[in-house]
Design a protein that fits this description.
Strand content: 25-35%
CATH topology: Peptide Deformylase
Distance between the termini: 24 Å
Order of helices and strands: HEEEEEEEHE
CATH architecture: Alpha-Beta Complex
CATH class: Alpha Beta
Strand order of the largest sheet: 1-2-3-6-7
Number of domains: 1
Radius of gyration: 15 Å
Largest sheet: 5 strands, antiparallel
């Protein structure tokens, strides 16, 4: 088991743009994905929430996003997001890099994600609603963007303690 430290808000490495994985360094991608898996499980056990994590959050500057929702696990290598339509919605977003802070932001309602898998096959998925928002959040991490940078205004922040029964 290789639980990694999650970088916290203020760490300059969270603001860096990640590098693409090449077919030649798929072994590195597999190792990062294993670490993302172990780290998200440990985070869920501690805070009671967490459905996705990106490689930059564990200080790996690679374009990898890892979804872990109930029994469904998806890893996205070198994802590209295409917005479907102009419709957006507002929500309170949270992040493993600032687990007790929520930020009110605006996201696109529907997206298409084009990505590689560990067999280097091309794939695409369409997400709507909360999964669209979730992926956009993780995708932003790959580009060195945090939810705090997307705040609707300077009053769009609140503290929320996820480590209470209300969130378990």
């Amino acid at each position: 088991m290789s639980v990694r430290e999650i970088l916290l808000l203020g760490n300059e490495n969270l603001f860096k743009t990640s590098e693409e994985i090449t077919e030649e360094n798929l072994d590195k991608a597999k190792q990062v994905i294993d670490d993302l898996h172990d780290t998200i499980i440990a985070f869920k056990n501690k805070y009671g929430f967490g459905r996705a994590i990106s490689a930059p959050q564990i200080d790996e500057a690679y374009r990898i996003v890892y979804f872990h929702m109930d029994d469904e696990i998806i890893h996205f290598i070198n994802p590209v997001v295409e917005f479907i339509g102009e419709e957006t919605f507002e929500l309170w977003d949270d992040c493993m890099s600032f687990p007790q802070l929520e930020v009110k932001i605006k996201r696109h309602k529907k997206i298409k994600v084009i990505y590689k898998d560990l067999d280097w096959n091309d794939n695409e998925l369409v997400f709507a609603g909360d999964l669209s928002e979730l992926f956009q959040h993780e995708y932003d991490h790959l580009n060195g963007i945090l939810a705090v940078q997307r705040a609707i205004d300077n009053k769009s922040f609140r503290i929320n303690n996820h480590n209470t029964e209300e969130y378990k």
